[in-house]
Specification:
The chain is mainly α. The chain has one domain (2-311). The chain is built from eleven helices and four strands. It has helices at 2-25, 33-48, 56-84, 87-101, 104-119, 123-131, 143-190, 202-226, 229-239, 248-259, 287-311, and strands at residues 263-264, 267-269, 272-274, 278-279. It has a two-stranded antiparallel sheet. β2 and β3 form a beta hairpin. The protein starts with a helix and ends with a helix.
């Protein structure tokens, strides 16, 4: 019992320490561990991906094997390290793992890089900045479209890059945070419905969906509590299901409702217009809404930190 209480207490302290490190230093500019993992994941893909003419079931099986080869050795290595280290070192390891898993300050910096030129009417710079964090075509985006793309990215990545890693850190400790971050990275690399990745990336996409299911619903509630509650919950319930992602849809709809702004709609991806459902209610997006979306994330992080410290 004492060990469990000590573990939970160290989890709360490690969370606060990791958040402080992230706000002070942001993501490492050099030698980021996810860069090395990305190279390892690319090697696993080259090793195991089959030609597209091979049966879908075989491609999926190799995708499962590639996911396991890419992720499981790191989880085993971290588990062994935590087992071998003295208990007082677990706090340091947990703090560093969570620090590497979250991207709170990075998300704020990317948002500021969009908002500042947008405030001055420098649309080319704003398009370039938003192009770094979204996959849609940005060359001809108007001012409201730039703001909309930035807000959507902030709301979705608030869940993926901040709240979900914290959730799995609380539930499974450092191994949980690492499992989530590596799985989410593989989804970003392999989880596309292109001809070459449709079946090979199936496992990466499904694992990410499963790991995000509960955190995403908690983020819906978080956005609602930190913004317009009734509008956020109504939009999440009515609009979230129509989005292409089962987790991003409710999160973005709730965020848009919390901010009382209209998101979604038609967007250009790789030269082709895609019609997306409308998310949220209220005004057309502006740079002020982009600033408020970051404030919504900040409030949510504060609420989570306080609740975690109180409850555990």
């Amino acid at each position: 019992m004492e060990f469990l209480l000590g573990y939970l207490s160290s989890t709360a302290f490690a969370l606060i320490a990791a958040l402080a490190l992230d706000r002070l230093f942001g993501e490492p500019s050099r030698w980021h561990p996810l860069v090395g993992f990305g190279k390892w994941a690319s090697y696993c893909r080259r090793l195991l991906q089959l030609p597209t003419e091979v049966k879908a079931c075989h491609q999926r099986l190799n995708g499962v094997l590639a996911w396991g080869l890419a992720v499981i050795p790191f989880l085993i290595g971290l588990s062994l390290l935590l087992w071998l280290l003295p208990s007082w070192m677990e706090f340091i390891v947990g703090t560093l793992v969570l620090y590497g898993a979250i991207g709170w300050q990075s998300l704020r910096q990317h948002s500021l890089a969009i908002a500042e030129p947008l405030r001055h009417g420098w649309l080319d710079e704003a398009r370039e900045a938003v192009g770094r964090i979204v996959s849609r075509d940005t060359d001809s985006l108007t001012e409201p479209e730039i703001a909309k793309a930035g807000i959507e990215s902030v709301l979705e990545n608030g869940s993926d890059a901040i709240f979900a890693p914290i959730f799995w850190f609380v539930v499974l400790g450092p191994v949980g945070a690492l499992l989530y971050r590596l799985s989410n990275t593989l989804d970003a690399m392999w989880g596309y419905k292109t001809e070459s990745l449709l079946h090979f990336g199936w496992c990466a996409a499904r694992v990410d969906d499963v790991l995000n299911f509960i955190p995403a619903r908690l983020v819906v509630l978080t956005y609602a509590v930190c913004g317009n509650f009734d509008c956020a919950m109504r939009c999440a319930r009515r609009q979230g299901r129509g989005w292409k992602s089962p987790n991003a849809g409710p999160v973005m709809a709730a965020g848009a409702g919390a901010l009382t702004v209209r998101l979604g709609g038609t967007a250009q991806y790789f030269g082709e217009a895609q019609r997306r459902p409308t998310l949220g209610e209220g005004a057309a997006p502006t740079v002020e809404h982009l600033d408020r979306s970051v404030g919504l994330i900040d409030k949510g992080v504060f609420v989570w930190a306080v609740l975690i410290c109180i409850l555990i």
